[in-house]
Amino acid sequence: MGLFDYAEIFDQLFASYDSIANWEPDTDADGNFIDANGNIIEDVVVYKEQMLQAWFDTLEAVEGEFDVKAENLACYIKQLKAEAETLKKEKLAFTKRQAQKEKQAEKLTKYLLSSMQAAGKTKIDMPRAVITVKRNAPSLVISDELGLVDWLMKNNDKLLKYEMPTVKKAEVKKQLKAGEEIPFVQLESKSSVTIK
Questions:
Q1: N or C, which end of the chain has less CB nearby within 10 Å?
Q2: Which of 4-13, 31-40, 56-65, 153-162 has the highest mean pLDDT?
């Protein structure tokens, strides 16, 4: 049985509490108080106390089961988070090593290119590698980006890409907390679970 199943059990249990609290016994033809099975109830107060005690015992058992299942689930969540943290650290280590290898390969590639250009070679054909110096398509080099943007705004703004501004959420939140009214936003609290 999952945790969601317990929600329905709790609903039914609390609904039954109201019926126990408001319970009034039936009577037989002789005026004796009787239970649902037709058995005579000797002491109505004691009988009702027994019904309430049984209800509390059931509640305690269900809560205990729920708590154990919740604890097991929480432990599994903690395990998953620990595994995710380990993977994150490994990912960072791999990313760092990848960047180092890429940088090293880039430096050595530049060195190889300059060496081949100095030797006047455009191709080396060897058994394990074929090395070719080729002329790439021209790439755009901007010497003064602000100057270029200013010039394009005045002369040809079709060559500019405009982007939507982003909201400084921390600043907006700070001002809302200070009592300032800002349309289209509100502060909202959500529930969360803490597992230790």
A1: C
A2: 153-162
Cα distance between residue 106 and residue 129, in whole Å? 17
Residue with tokens 């205990």: 64
Strand extents, DSSP E, 38-187? 123-125, 130-132
What distance separates the 2 farthest-apart alpha carbons in the chain?
122
pLDDT, tens digit (0-9, with 9 covering 90-100), for 122-162: 999 999 999 999 988 999 999 999 999 999 999 999 999 99
- Tell me how far apart the alpha carbons of residues 182 and 19 are, in angstroms, rounded to a whole number: 50
* Continuous H helices in 120-184: 145-155, 169-177
Q: Are 3 and 69 in contact (CB under 8 A)?
A: yes
DSSP 189: -
Domain boundaries, the chain: 1-85
pTM of the model: 0.55
* Number of Cβ atoms within 10 Å of the Cβ of 70: 14
Please say whether the beta carbons of 51 and 59 come within 8 A: no
